[in-house]
Design brief:
single chain; about 230 residues; alpha/beta; Rossmann fold; six-stranded mixed sheet
Length: about 230
């Protein structure tokens, strides 16, 4: 719920679902349906005004900011539509940032180099974001998202700023890396073809979850209750 002037706006209304570990889940729906708000809540970037967000037995809604920051730094990866690379850092340095923030600088360069090789940017790792195309910047962002071996990967329109020719191989990389790294993926997209590649599709309208279609559920090991 948000306050706008004297009005209270309910962005999400009684949304509830469980996400098994290892599942790749897409959230679709029209603009303004609450997708990004839901993703932000699940990632611990925002706090709900009511309800619970239980991940690995921990309620994110009751954790303080320090605990949430530690959880995001060690267990979470993010991919954003607008890349969010630091312009003064090279591709390699951008990918190293999450490990350095954890205090794991030793070995960070080699891990980051290996991931940039994996996403096809081994020859571009010393370039700055302004020297890279949109598709290359998103590849750097993908490498950064996976550098801390996250259990949970949150992607907000990862191909939204890319044309079809560039976005298709990027989507391949996203799903390939997710399988290789055994992360649980929660993905927002307007692209129905991209959503169809997920194991499960949640549809939202007007802040409500209107459809939950599971096509290939993995064996559950842990569950996030959201």
């Amino acid at each position: 719920m948000y306050t706008s002037g004297e009005r209270e706006l309910t962005v999400l209304d009684a949304v509830s679902f469980e996400l098994p570990v290892g599942q790749r889940c897409a959230i679709v729906g029209p603009s303004g349906s609450g997708k990004t708000t839901l993703l932000g809540l699940c990632a611990g970037l925002d706090r709900p005004t009511s309800g619970a967000l239980v991940v690995d037995g921990r309620d994110l809604a009751t954790m303080d900011e320090d605990a949430l920051s530690r959880w995001r730094a060690t267990e979470v990866g993010f991919v954003f539509q607008n890349f969010r690379l630091l312009p003064t850092l090279t591709a390699l340095e951008n990918v190293m940032v999450p490990l350095e923030l954890q205090g794991a600088a030793r070995g960070a360069r080699q891990v980051a180099t290996d991931l940039l090789d994996r996403v096809g940017l081994g020859a571009r790792m010393d370039h700055y974001p302004a020297q890279l195309s949109g598709g290359e910047q998103q590849r750097v962002a993908l490498a950064r998202a996976f550098v801390n071996s996250p259990k949970w990967l949150f992607a907000d329109e990862p191909t939204g700023n890319l044309d079809t020719e560039t976005g298709a191989p990027l989507a391949d990389l996203l799903f390939d890396l997710d399988r290789e790294r055994d992360a649980t993926l929660l993905l927002i997209t307007h692209d129905r073809e991209l959503a169809a590649r997920a194991d499960r599709v949640l549809t939202m309208r007007g802040g409500k979850l209107t459809d939950d279609s599971t096509t290939n559920p993995p064996a559950a090991r842990e569950v996030a209750t959201l």
